Amino acid sequence: MPGSICDVLPSVAALLGAPDGLDTLGLTGEPGGVDRVCVVLVDGLGWHLLPHLVDDAPILASVLAGRTGQLQRLDCTFPSTTPTSLVSLGTGAPPGEHGILGFTLNIPGTDRVLNHIRWRDDPPHSEWQPLPTWFQRLTDDGVIARAVLPERFVGSGLTDAAYGGAQFVAIRSGDDYPGRLAEQVRAAPGLIYGYIADLDTAAHVSGIGSPHWHEAAGRVDALLSRVIEGMPAGAALLVTADHGGLNVAPDARIDMAADPRLAAGVRVVAGEPRVRYLHTEPGAATDVLATWTELLAGRAQVRTREEAVASGVFGPVSPRNLARIGDVVATCTGDAAILATGHEPPETARLIGFHGAASEAETAIPLIAIR
Questions:
Q1: CATH of region 3-93+131-246+359-370, choose from 3.40.50.300, 3.20.20.60, 3.40.50.720, 3.40.720.10
Q2: Closest CA to 171 of 152, 202, 190, 150
Q3: Which of 65, 180, 292, 362 has minimal Cβ neighbours within 10 Å of its Cβ?
Protein backbone atom coordinates (compact mmCIF):
# COMPACT_ATOMS: atom_id res chain seq x y z
CA MET A 1 0.00 0.00 0.00
CA PRO A 2 1.34 3.46 -0.83
CA GLY A 3 1.85 6.00 1.90
CA SER A 4 -0.41 8.98 2.42
CA ILE A 5 -0.13 12.72 2.25
CA CYS A 6 -0.82 12.53 6.00
CA ASP A 7 2.61 10.89 6.45
CA VAL A 8 4.69 13.66 4.89
CA LEU A 9 5.13 16.12 7.76
CA PRO A 10 5.44 13.48 10.52
CA SER A 11 8.28 11.99 8.45
CA VAL A 12 9.84 15.43 7.96
CA ALA A 13 9.62 15.98 11.72
CA ALA A 14 11.52 12.73 12.27
CA LEU A 15 14.12 13.79 9.71
CA LEU A 16 14.60 17.04 11.63
CA GLY A 17 14.94 15.22 14.94
CA ALA A 18 11.63 16.28 16.49
CA PRO A 19 10.62 13.87 19.27
CA ASP A 20 7.06 13.42 17.95
CA GLY A 21 8.17 12.63 14.39
CA LEU A 22 7.42 9.27 12.82
CA ASP A 23 9.18 8.42 9.57
CA THR A 24 6.76 6.03 7.91
CA LEU A 25 8.05 7.11 4.48
CA GLY A 26 11.67 6.10 5.03
CA LEU A 27 13.12 9.59 4.67
CA THR A 28 15.73 9.05 7.40
CA GLY A 29 17.16 5.96 5.74
CA GLU A 30 19.89 7.79 3.82
CA PRO A 31 23.18 8.60 5.56
CA GLY A 32 24.09 12.23 6.25
CA GLY A 33 22.60 14.79 8.59
CA VAL A 34 19.71 16.99 7.49
CA ASP A 35 19.04 20.25 9.31
CA ARG A 36 16.50 21.82 6.94
CA VAL A 37 13.76 20.44 4.70
CA CYS A 38 11.94 22.39 2.01
CA VAL A 39 8.53 20.89 1.23
CA VAL A 40 7.04 22.18 -2.03
CA LEU A 41 3.44 21.27 -2.77
CA VAL A 42 2.68 21.48 -6.49
CA ASP A 43 -1.08 21.81 -6.82
CA GLY A 44 -2.39 19.27 -9.33
CA LEU A 45 0.86 17.32 -9.86
CA GLY A 46 -0.76 13.88 -10.04
CA TRP A 47 1.32 10.72 -10.24
CA HIS A 48 -0.19 9.73 -13.57
CA LEU A 49 0.59 13.14 -15.06
CA LEU A 50 4.36 12.95 -14.53
CA PRO A 51 5.15 11.17 -17.83
CA HIS A 52 3.27 13.88 -19.74
CA LEU A 53 5.46 16.62 -18.26
CA VAL A 54 8.92 15.38 -19.17
CA ASP A 55 9.32 17.52 -22.32
CA ASP A 56 8.66 20.69 -20.33
CA ALA A 57 10.25 19.85 -16.98
CA PRO A 58 13.88 18.67 -17.07
CA ILE A 59 14.11 18.08 -13.33
CA LEU A 60 10.93 15.99 -13.26
CA ALA A 61 12.19 14.11 -16.32
CA SER A 62 15.45 13.35 -14.52
CA VAL A 63 13.53 12.14 -11.47
CA LEU A 64 11.39 9.83 -13.60
CA ALA A 65 14.49 8.47 -15.31
CA GLY A 66 16.04 7.65 -11.92
CA ARG A 67 18.93 10.12 -12.31
CA THR A 68 17.82 12.60 -9.64
CA GLY A 69 16.47 12.01 -6.16
CA GLN A 70 14.08 9.32 -5.06
CA LEU A 71 10.47 8.92 -6.19
CA GLN A 72 7.64 7.13 -4.45
CA ARG A 73 3.89 7.12 -4.89
CA LEU A 74 1.57 8.40 -2.18
CA ASP A 75 -2.20 8.83 -2.04
CA CYS A 76 -3.99 12.01 -1.11
CA THR A 77 -7.08 11.93 1.09
CA PHE A 78 -10.73 11.94 -0.03
CA PRO A 79 -12.20 14.03 -1.50
CA SER A 80 -9.17 14.63 -3.70
CA THR A 81 -9.43 18.40 -3.51
CA THR A 82 -7.06 21.16 -2.44
CA PRO A 83 -8.57 22.32 0.89
CA THR A 84 -8.95 18.74 2.12
CA SER A 85 -5.45 17.75 1.08
CA LEU A 86 -3.74 20.86 2.44
CA VAL A 87 -5.24 20.32 5.88
CA SER A 88 -4.46 16.59 5.75
CA LEU A 89 -0.86 17.51 4.95
CA GLY A 90 -0.71 20.15 7.67
CA THR A 91 -2.32 18.14 10.46
CA GLY A 92 -1.29 14.62 9.43
CA ALA A 93 -4.93 13.63 10.04
CA PRO A 94 -7.59 12.21 7.70
CA PRO A 95 -10.51 14.43 6.66
CA GLY A 96 -12.99 12.74 8.97
CA GLU A 97 -10.91 13.96 11.91
CA HIS A 98 -9.93 17.46 10.78
CA GLY A 99 -13.33 18.22 9.25
CA ILE A 100 -12.33 19.95 5.99
CA LEU A 101 -14.29 17.38 4.03
CA GLY A 102 -14.53 19.09 0.66
CA PHE A 103 -14.03 22.20 -1.45
CA THR A 104 -17.33 23.53 -0.15
CA LEU A 105 -19.33 22.36 2.86
CA ASN A 106 -22.71 23.11 4.33
CA ILE A 107 -22.41 24.72 7.76
CA PRO A 108 -24.65 22.47 9.88
CA GLY A 109 -27.79 24.09 11.19
CA THR A 110 -27.83 26.66 8.37
CA ASP A 111 -28.35 26.82 4.62
CA ARG A 112 -24.91 28.43 4.21
CA VAL A 113 -22.23 26.81 2.07
CA LEU A 114 -18.65 27.56 3.08
CA ASN A 115 -16.16 27.86 0.22
CA HIS A 116 -12.84 26.98 1.86
CA ILE A 117 -10.81 28.94 -0.68
CA ARG A 118 -12.69 32.15 0.19
CA TRP A 119 -12.98 31.42 3.91
CA ARG A 120 -11.72 34.14 6.22
CA ASP A 121 -12.88 34.11 9.85
CA ASP A 122 -16.50 32.89 9.77
CA PRO A 123 -16.66 30.26 11.13
CA PRO A 124 -13.51 30.74 13.26
CA HIS A 125 -10.80 28.39 12.02
CA SER A 126 -10.04 27.14 15.54
CA GLU A 127 -13.63 25.90 15.83
CA TRP A 128 -14.09 24.62 12.28
CA GLN A 129 -10.69 22.85 12.30
CA PRO A 130 -9.39 22.52 15.89
CA LEU A 131 -6.57 20.00 15.37
CA PRO A 132 -2.98 21.20 15.82
CA THR A 133 -0.78 21.29 12.75
CA TRP A 134 2.70 19.87 12.39
CA PHE A 135 3.93 23.43 11.89
CA GLN A 136 2.72 24.16 15.43
CA ARG A 137 4.10 20.90 16.79
CA LEU A 138 7.53 21.56 15.30
CA THR A 139 7.49 25.09 16.67
CA ASP A 140 6.63 23.74 20.11
CA ASP A 141 9.59 21.36 19.80
CA GLY A 142 11.93 24.26 19.06
CA VAL A 143 12.18 23.63 15.29
CA ILE A 144 11.66 26.70 13.09
CA ALA A 145 8.74 26.14 10.69
CA ARG A 146 8.13 28.69 7.94
CA ALA A 147 5.46 28.92 5.24
CA VAL A 148 6.42 31.02 2.22
CA LEU A 149 3.07 32.01 0.74
CA PRO A 150 1.45 34.72 -1.37
CA GLU A 151 0.45 37.66 0.78
CA ARG A 152 -3.26 37.16 -0.01
CA PHE A 153 -3.17 33.71 1.66
CA VAL A 154 -2.00 35.02 5.01
CA GLY A 155 -4.81 35.34 7.54
CA SER A 156 -7.29 33.19 5.64
CA GLY A 157 -9.20 30.46 7.44
CA LEU A 158 -7.70 27.75 5.22
CA THR A 159 -4.16 28.99 5.78
CA ASP A 160 -4.64 28.99 9.54
CA ALA A 161 -6.32 25.56 9.45
CA ALA A 162 -3.54 23.99 7.38
CA TYR A 163 -0.41 25.90 8.43
CA GLY A 164 -1.25 27.36 11.84
CA GLY A 165 1.85 27.80 13.99
CA ALA A 166 4.17 28.51 11.06
CA GLN A 167 6.13 31.71 10.67
CA PHE A 168 4.60 33.26 7.55
CA VAL A 169 6.82 34.79 4.92
CA ALA A 170 4.37 36.83 2.85
CA ILE A 171 5.20 37.22 -0.85
CA ARG A 172 3.74 40.22 -2.64
CA SER A 173 2.38 40.11 -6.15
CA GLY A 174 5.25 40.62 -8.59
CA ASP A 175 7.91 39.37 -6.17
CA ASP A 176 10.36 36.68 -7.26
CA TYR A 177 8.64 33.79 -5.50
CA PRO A 178 11.17 31.05 -6.45
CA GLY A 179 13.99 33.32 -5.37
CA ARG A 180 12.34 34.16 -2.04
CA LEU A 181 11.66 30.49 -1.36
CA ALA A 182 15.28 29.56 -2.14
CA GLU A 183 16.41 32.42 0.08
CA GLN A 184 14.44 31.02 3.01
CA VAL A 185 15.98 27.58 2.50
CA ARG A 186 19.43 29.13 2.79
CA ALA A 187 18.51 31.42 5.68
CA ALA A 188 18.02 29.01 8.57
CA PRO A 189 17.49 25.35 9.51
CA GLY A 190 14.04 23.86 10.02
CA LEU A 191 10.98 23.30 7.83
CA ILE A 192 10.35 25.60 4.88
CA TYR A 193 7.06 25.16 3.03
CA GLY A 194 6.23 26.42 -0.45
CA TYR A 195 3.20 26.12 -2.71
CA ILE A 196 2.63 26.67 -6.43
CA ALA A 197 -0.82 26.66 -8.06
CA ASP A 198 0.10 27.22 -11.73
CA LEU A 199 -0.31 23.63 -12.93
CA ASP A 200 -3.72 23.16 -11.31
CA THR A 201 -4.99 26.51 -12.55
CA ALA A 202 -3.99 25.64 -16.11
CA ALA A 203 -5.63 22.20 -15.85
CA HIS A 204 -8.90 23.70 -14.68
CA VAL A 205 -9.01 26.57 -17.15
CA SER A 206 -7.45 25.08 -20.28
CA GLY A 207 -7.30 21.34 -19.66
CA ILE A 208 -4.62 18.77 -18.88
CA GLY A 209 -2.34 18.49 -21.91
CA SER A 210 -3.12 21.98 -23.22
CA PRO A 211 -0.33 24.41 -24.19
CA HIS A 212 -1.23 26.47 -21.11
CA TRP A 213 -0.74 23.39 -18.93
CA HIS A 214 2.65 22.56 -20.48
CA GLU A 215 3.79 26.16 -19.99
CA ALA A 216 2.80 25.91 -16.33
CA ALA A 217 4.87 22.73 -16.01
CA GLY A 218 7.89 24.70 -17.17
CA ARG A 219 7.31 27.29 -14.44
CA VAL A 220 7.03 24.56 -11.82
CA ASP A 221 10.31 23.05 -12.97
CA ALA A 222 12.00 26.45 -12.94
CA LEU A 223 10.93 26.97 -9.32
CA LEU A 224 12.30 23.58 -8.31
CA SER A 225 15.54 24.34 -10.15
CA ARG A 226 16.01 27.59 -8.24
CA VAL A 227 15.52 25.83 -4.92
CA ILE A 228 17.88 22.98 -5.79
CA GLU A 229 20.61 25.31 -7.07
CA GLY A 230 20.60 27.24 -3.79
CA MET A 231 20.36 24.32 -1.35
CA PRO A 232 23.18 24.36 1.21
CA ALA A 233 24.74 21.27 2.73
CA GLY A 234 22.31 19.58 5.09
CA ALA A 235 19.26 20.55 3.05
CA ALA A 236 16.64 18.28 1.53
CA LEU A 237 13.84 19.06 -0.90
CA LEU A 238 10.54 17.17 -0.87
CA VAL A 239 8.08 17.71 -3.72
CA THR A 240 4.54 16.42 -3.45
CA ALA A 241 1.01 17.29 -4.57
CA ASP A 242 -2.54 17.55 -3.30
CA HIS A 243 -4.29 15.60 -6.08
CA GLY A 244 -4.16 14.68 -9.76
CA GLY A 245 -6.99 15.25 -12.20
CA LEU A 246 -8.70 14.53 -15.49
CA ASN A 247 -10.49 16.38 -18.27
CA VAL A 248 -14.28 16.14 -18.45
CA ALA A 249 -15.85 16.34 -21.89
CA PRO A 250 -19.06 18.34 -22.42
CA ASP A 251 -21.15 15.20 -22.97
CA ALA A 252 -19.96 13.73 -19.63
CA ARG A 253 -21.41 16.59 -17.57
CA ILE A 254 -24.69 16.30 -15.72
CA ASP A 255 -26.27 19.60 -14.63
CA MET A 256 -28.72 19.45 -11.75
CA ALA A 257 -30.38 22.60 -13.08
CA ALA A 258 -31.24 20.86 -16.34
CA ASP A 259 -33.16 17.98 -14.73
CA PRO A 260 -35.80 18.85 -12.10
CA ARG A 261 -35.72 15.26 -10.86
CA LEU A 262 -32.16 15.77 -9.59
CA ALA A 263 -33.10 18.94 -7.73
CA ALA A 264 -36.24 17.54 -6.13
CA GLY A 265 -35.93 17.20 -2.36
CA VAL A 266 -32.46 18.75 -2.24
CA ARG A 267 -32.12 21.67 0.18
CA VAL A 268 -28.38 22.45 -0.03
CA VAL A 269 -25.74 21.33 -2.55
CA ALA A 270 -22.10 21.28 -1.50
CA GLY A 271 -18.88 19.45 -2.37
CA GLU A 272 -17.67 19.88 -5.95
CA PRO A 273 -18.49 18.52 -9.42
CA ARG A 274 -16.77 15.16 -8.84
CA VAL A 275 -18.17 14.62 -5.32
CA ARG A 276 -21.56 16.04 -4.42
CA TYR A 277 -22.94 16.39 -0.91
CA LEU A 278 -26.74 16.60 -1.01
CA HIS A 279 -28.44 17.91 2.11
CA THR A 280 -32.06 16.98 1.71
CA GLU A 281 -35.39 18.38 2.81
CA PRO A 282 -36.85 16.65 5.90
CA GLY A 283 -38.03 13.17 4.96
CA ALA A 284 -36.69 13.36 1.39
CA ALA A 285 -33.38 11.51 1.74
CA THR A 286 -34.73 8.11 0.67
CA ASP A 287 -36.35 9.51 -2.47
CA VAL A 288 -33.29 11.57 -3.38
CA LEU A 289 -31.08 8.51 -2.96
CA ALA A 290 -33.32 6.40 -5.19
CA THR A 291 -33.63 9.07 -7.89
CA TRP A 292 -29.92 9.83 -8.05
CA THR A 293 -29.03 6.13 -8.02
CA GLU A 294 -31.30 5.53 -11.01
CA LEU A 295 -30.43 8.62 -13.05
CA LEU A 296 -26.67 8.46 -12.47
CA ALA A 297 -26.26 4.70 -12.87
CA GLY A 298 -22.85 3.98 -14.39
CA ARG A 299 -21.68 7.55 -13.85
CA ALA A 300 -21.62 7.94 -10.06
CA GLN A 301 -21.66 5.90 -6.89
CA VAL A 302 -24.57 7.20 -4.82
CA ARG A 303 -24.62 6.42 -1.08
CA THR A 304 -26.17 7.58 2.13
CA ARG A 305 -23.98 9.48 4.56
CA GLU A 306 -23.86 6.39 6.76
CA GLU A 307 -22.75 4.16 3.88
CA ALA A 308 -20.06 6.61 2.78
CA VAL A 309 -18.70 6.93 6.32
CA ALA A 310 -18.77 3.16 6.85
CA SER A 311 -16.77 2.65 3.64
CA GLY A 312 -13.81 4.36 5.30
CA VAL A 313 -13.13 6.89 2.52
CA PHE A 314 -12.92 9.77 5.00
CA GLY A 315 -10.99 7.84 7.63
CA PRO A 316 -12.53 7.81 11.12
CA VAL A 317 -15.16 10.54 11.25
CA SER A 318 -15.47 12.61 14.41
CA PRO A 319 -19.09 13.02 15.54
CA ARG A 320 -18.71 16.81 15.31
CA ASN A 321 -18.01 16.48 11.58
CA LEU A 322 -20.75 14.04 10.53
CA ALA A 323 -23.35 16.66 9.62
CA ARG A 324 -20.90 18.34 7.23
CA ILE A 325 -21.29 15.33 4.93
CA GLY A 326 -24.47 15.33 2.87
CA ASP A 327 -27.43 13.09 3.62
CA VAL A 328 -26.64 11.67 0.18
CA VAL A 329 -23.11 11.48 -1.28
CA ALA A 330 -22.64 11.13 -5.06
CA THR A 331 -19.08 10.28 -6.12
CA CYS A 332 -18.45 10.38 -9.87
CA THR A 333 -16.90 7.43 -11.64
CA GLY A 334 -15.33 7.44 -15.09
CA ASP A 335 -14.98 10.98 -16.42
CA ALA A 336 -18.34 12.35 -15.30
CA ALA A 337 -18.96 15.62 -13.45
CA ILE A 338 -22.11 16.84 -11.71
CA LEU A 339 -22.63 20.56 -12.22
CA ALA A 340 -24.88 22.63 -10.00
CA THR A 341 -25.27 25.83 -12.02
CA GLY A 342 -28.12 26.97 -9.83
CA HIS A 343 -25.92 26.86 -6.73
CA GLU A 344 -22.39 27.72 -7.87
CA PRO A 345 -20.55 30.51 -9.72
CA PRO A 346 -20.90 30.19 -13.52
CA GLU A 347 -17.15 29.77 -14.00
CA THR A 348 -17.33 26.30 -12.44
CA ALA A 349 -19.28 25.02 -15.44
CA ARG A 350 -16.64 26.44 -17.80
CA LEU A 351 -13.77 24.44 -16.29
CA ILE A 352 -12.17 21.67 -18.33
CA GLY A 353 -10.03 19.82 -15.78
CA PHE A 354 -11.57 18.42 -12.59
CA HIS A 355 -10.69 16.32 -9.54
CA GLY A 356 -12.23 15.35 -6.23
CA ALA A 357 -13.33 11.75 -6.68
CA ALA A 358 -11.61 8.49 -5.78
CA SER A 359 -10.02 7.36 -9.07
CA GLU A 360 -6.27 6.76 -9.15
CA ALA A 361 -5.94 9.57 -11.68
CA GLU A 362 -7.16 11.91 -8.94
CA THR A 363 -5.77 10.39 -5.74
CA ALA A 364 -2.28 9.11 -6.67
CA ILE A 365 0.42 11.73 -6.03
CA PRO A 366 4.23 11.70 -6.07
CA LEU A 367 6.74 12.27 -3.33
CA ILE A 368 10.11 13.31 -4.69
CA ALA A 369 13.04 13.52 -2.28
CA ILE A 370 16.21 15.35 -3.38
CA ARG A 371 19.28 16.02 -1.26
A1: 3.40.720.10
A2: 150
A3: 65
